[in-house]
Amino acid sequence: MTGHELVLKAMGAERTFSSVVLRGGLGLVEPLYRGAVAVRNAAFTLGLRRQKKLGRPTISVGNIIAGGSGKTPMVLELAGRLLAAGYQPAILLRGYKSGLIGSDEAKLLAKALRGEVQVEANRDRVRGAKRVLARQSGVDLFLLDDAFQHRQVCRDLDLVLLKADDPFGGDHLLPRGFLREPKCCLLRANAVIVTHSDRVTPMELENLDRQIKRLSGRRPIAHTVHRWVGLRGGDGGNHGEVGVLAGQRVLGVCGIGSPGAFLATLRNQTARDLESMTFGDHHEYGMSDLQEVFRKAMGNQCTAVVTTEKDWVKWEKLLVGKDSPPIPVYRPVLEIGFLDGSAEVDGLIQSVR
């Protein structure tokens, strides 16, 4: 069982002996984590730990829970808006398992932006910024992917994303829940954007907005949804509308922070029962994993496999030089849709100079 699965089990309502013991054990660790976070945050707030400037205006996009809240699609959206406004942004991210050739996330971002934006994966964001500027001195703004807790770096704007259907990770800090830091830390945010806003009722969304205002001092600047606007096949080309999945038996496969949102959207696109396989966040796939995926797909008479762009970046490396998959593999083309606040977000990011 992965760490993610352990936390989910602890957050659940099961009353089995193992679940009760697990909740109790992780609950004992939670205050220690809370204390460590408080000491670290106090060190930055009091100036005992200094923040470093990157040499260019800096916008951070982050969240307060471990797992997915739509940071990567939002970074892509903001980068596109900045390009359209005449900026020359660059993206800095930590990059899981990044090395000299970069991380899978960096490759995904660079490919999605067609090489128009410099992308650098480096655990040391200061060093990463220097590498970018050495390659392209014309960069005039840095976008930090997943950096709300990366307080070592100065930023001019802190944007925090909260998922409408699970904004606070079970209301417990790690490892009992998914909160990276207490909810009151939203006070550091300059603006909050609520993602996946279509996954809750209007009343639930309004209640969340009020809670965010109590915690951060302001209502969310925008509400967004994630839309699937097409399908991309293994050859990289577009393969039509998402509606082609309707009526097909599909196997959904992912190794991301929030598999529920991906699988729920996929289920809405298919008229038949959906088969699924999930792996841990940032799972390092091996050929045996892909063999198991296709065995399960064919064993369940599936006519297509659907995975995420993040997963496909890893699959693609394993499939190079191999025979084509026995059944088609698709991944959705994502688009951020603003229900409100689009102009306000534009004004905010363009105010950073």
Verbal overview:
By secondary structure, the protein is of the alpha/beta class. It folds into 2 domains: 58-220, 3-Layer(aba) Sandwich (Rossmann fold), CATH 3.40.50.300; 226-335, Dna Topoisomerase Vi A Subunit, Chain: A, domain 2, CATH 3.40.1360. The chain is 37% helix and 19% strand. The protein contains 10 helices and 11 strands. Strands 3-2-4-1-5-6-7-11-10-8-9 form an 11-stranded mixed beta sheet, sandwiched between helices. Strand 6 (191-195), helix 6 (202-216) and strand 7 (222-233) form a beta-alpha-beta unit. The longest helix is centred in the first third of the chain and has 29 residues, at 17-45.
Termini gap: 46 Å
According to CATH, what is the topology of the largest domain?
Rossmann fold
Question: CATH homologous superfamily of the largest domain, by name?
Answer: P-loop containing nucleotide triphosphate hydrolases
CATH architecture of the largest domain: 3-Layer(aba) Sandwich
> How many structurally independent domains?
2
Chain oligomer state = single chain
Report the average pLDDT across residues. Answer: 90
Tell me the overall shape.
globular
Largest sheet: 11 strands, mixed
With strands numbered from the N-terminus, the spatial order across the biggest sheet is 3-2-4-1-5-6-7-11-10-8-9
Low-confidence stretches at least 5 residues in length (pLDDT < 50)? 8-13
Question: What is the CATH class name of the largest domain?
Answer: Alpha Beta
User: How many whole angstroms does the radius of gyration measure?
Assistant: 21 Å
- Order of helix and strand elements from N to C terminus: HHEHEHEHEEEHEEHEHEHEH
Q: How many β-strands, per DSSP?
A: 11
Classify the helix fraction into a percent range: 25-40%
